[in-house]
Design a protein that fits this description.
single chain; mainly alpha; two-stranded parallel sheet
């Protein structure tokens, strides 16, 4: 009886997983696609997510698909950031407050991509609170130059309060 119960439980879980994958993969793909080109500097323009494995592939204009784990570490991290933002949005109910709390998300970026990611996060912050922790001077300079709206707040912690 226990073997039957366990087998049936595994069957239900497998079906539930398949259903979630079929539903989530297209939602994530559609959410990430508009941001992909800006964050990858135009190198990648399309994304697909395998429904069975959730493996992520990206392609440029030449349509040569590449799996994200085989990309450079920085590019993969940027794509995974987009996926995390998209997933947070999918898991949040309408009118529910769910801030994005991010830590050093631009650490593996060159200056151009760093600005593109920060610009994107700033745009996202129009609809959703974004709290970004960073120790990078460039991030602070970006914020000092672009924060003009009262909704934008830059809080700098004095070095004396940061434990060594």
């Amino acid at each position: 009886a226990l073997d039957r119960t366990l087998a049936r439980t595994q069957e239900y879980l497998k079906r539930a997983q398949d259903k979630v994958h079929r539903n989530v993969a297209p939602l994530l793909r559609d959410a990430v696609r508009p941001w992909l080109q800006a964050v990858t500097g135009g190198r990648y323009t399309d994304i697909r997510i395998d429904v069975e494995s959730l493996m992520v592939h990206v392609a440029g204009d030449g349509r040569s698909w590449r799996t994200v784990p085989l990309l450079s570490h920085g590019t993969a991290e940027q794509i995974y950031l987009l996926l995390r933002v998209a997933m947070a949005r999918q898991l949040t109910r309408r009118k529910e407050i769910c801030p994005l709390i991010l830590d050093d998300v631009t650490v593996n970026c060159d200056s151009e991509r760093q600005a593109q990611i920060l610009d994107l996060l700033h745009t996202i912050s129009e609809d959703q609170q974004v709290i970004l922790f960073s120790q990078e001077l460039e991030t602070r300079q970006w914020a000092q130059q672009r924060f003009a709206d009262p909704r934008d707040v830059l809080i700098e912690l004095p070095l004396s309060t940061i434990p060594v």
